[in-house]
């Protein structure tokens, strides 16, 4: 991909309607999206991935399907019925991104980021290398950010405790190679996680 085209994409995403809509509807999910994208870039560097644009965009928009949900999952603990609704967001996100003209590599991050290495994820229950690498990276950094940032119904935990949790589920929920890469990048990621106070500034800083 040419640099000018890449720049156009990044501006399109960051200044365009999807992130702004997400931020307006659900600021915490937008903050989480920005963190996930930044963490994914750090992990990709550790894994020797040179071209990270699609990964970063996919992570920035991985939860965009939540725009179409009737509930706001980041704000409270989910009931069983809520959970069934929330499980639709990967497919909804994929549809939004394909409709908006994003390439498969970007849309597939949204589609597969809740799949698990052991095949017990959703929406399809695919496993291991059937899950695209960018989605496997997103799954790890997604979970990590939720743990270290916390939720209204779930207190944040320290980075070391979050890494321990990832290791505990490595090879089951998460790709071990990605977990190891994130753990190795721990000193680097401490300055990466965005605080809620800076949401507006940090999201626009992707442009
Ligand atoms: Fe998600
Ligand atoms: Fe997420």
From TrEMBL:
PROSITE patterns: HD_GYP. It holds the Pfam family HD_5. It comes from the Bacteria. GO terms for molecular function: hydrolase activity. Keywords: Hydrolase. NCBIfam families: HDIG. This is Metal dependent phosphohydrolase. It comes from Acetonema longum DSM 6540.
């Amino acid at each position: 991909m040419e640099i000018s085209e890449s720049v156009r994409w990044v501006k399109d995403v960051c200044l365009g309607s999807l992130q702004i809509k997400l931020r307006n509807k659900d600021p915490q999910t937008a903050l989480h999206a920005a963190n996930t994208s930044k963490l994914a870039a750090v992990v990709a560097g550790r894994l020797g991935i040179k071209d990270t644009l699609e990964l970063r965009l996919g992570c920035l928009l991985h939860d965009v399907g939540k725009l179409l949900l009737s509930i706001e999952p980041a704000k409270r603990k989910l009931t069983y019925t809520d959970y069934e609704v929330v499980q639709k967001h990967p497919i909804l996100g994929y549809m939004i991104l394909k409709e908006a003209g994003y390439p498969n590599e970007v849309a597939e991050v949204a589609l597969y980021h809740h799949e698990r290495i052991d095949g017990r994820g959703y929406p399809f229950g695919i496993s291991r290398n059937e899950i695209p690498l960018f989605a496997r990276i997103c799954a790890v950094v997604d979970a990590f950010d939720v743990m270290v940032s916390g939720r209204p119904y779930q207190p944040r935990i320290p980075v070391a405790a979050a890494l321990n949790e990832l290791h505990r589920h490595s090879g089951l929920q998460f790709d071990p190679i990605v977990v190891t890469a994130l753990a190795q990048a721990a000193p680097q990621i401490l300055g990466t996680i965005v605080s809620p106070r800076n949401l507006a500034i940090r999201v626009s800083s992707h442009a």
